[in-house]
Amino acid sequence: MDLTQNSIRAKATLVNIDLLTDEKGFLNVSIKDNGCGMKPEFLKVVTDPFTTERTTRKVGMGIPFFKLSCETADGNFFIDSVVDEGTVISGSLRLNSIDRIPLGDLGETIKFLIMYAPDVRYVLKIKSCKDEFILDTDEIKETLEDVSILQQEILEWIKEFVNENVSNIFGGVINEVLGRT
Fold this sequence. Notes:
The protein is an alpha+beta fold. It contains six helices and six strands. Strands 3-4-2-1-5-6 form a six-stranded mixed beta sheet. Helix 4 packs antiparallel against helix 6 (about 150-170). The two termini are about 25 Å apart.
């Protein structure tokens, strides 16, 4: 959630969130936005927790924590950003690593992001060798026509729809992705 909120603060109108498992036993996470991007000198130091562009606090833990989580779970971390084009943050985490943090309630996260910035287009892709699911908030808005995506019933439906697909593709929140690539 924190990484996606960075995209929103960077004035992104489109945020792609990919959660993919592969045949090598990794969960690959990617967040790509079309925000303002980062200057090269800031990009070089952005993984330092004492580097942030926020004025409300002097630390930025999202990117450093994600990097540490990936590396601790035998994975890799990558970030690239181009000014006026956007940013891509991605990482891999070994599925069976005892140090891999759980996904948590992905449906609740998506619900919160929509409430936080309803005008942003979120495209969530969840994929395993077994199946694939894509949620596109612009498609939902188009289907809803004049009904607001912010209506509580719609937000609850999105949350349940996402969690149902996480369960179908990864095995649910409790045993998510373990042994189910």
